[in-house]
């Protein structure tokens, strides 16, 4: 399934889990999800690269699994 979402005027917020040392830098757009039913995520070090869009149900399942320790630490 393809979802078209206009991100040209989106306000990107850096995750509180992103470190300030150029490591894992994740941004999201909190205003997009309620209207489009998706969670948008991008690498803040490369903002011109394409964003990833996840259905809200899939994102919720993923973050629940991460919080529950279902993935090994890298």
From TrEMBL:
<protein>
    <submittedName>
        <fullName>DUF397 domain-containing protein</fullName>
    </submittedName>
</protein>
<dbReference type="Pfam" id="PF04149">
    <property type="entry name" value="DUF397"/>
</dbReference>
<dbReference type="InterPro" id="IPR007278">
    <property type="entry name" value="DUF397"/>
</dbReference>
<feature type="domain" description="DUF397">
    <location>
        <begin position="10"/>
        <end position="67"/>
    </location>
</feature>
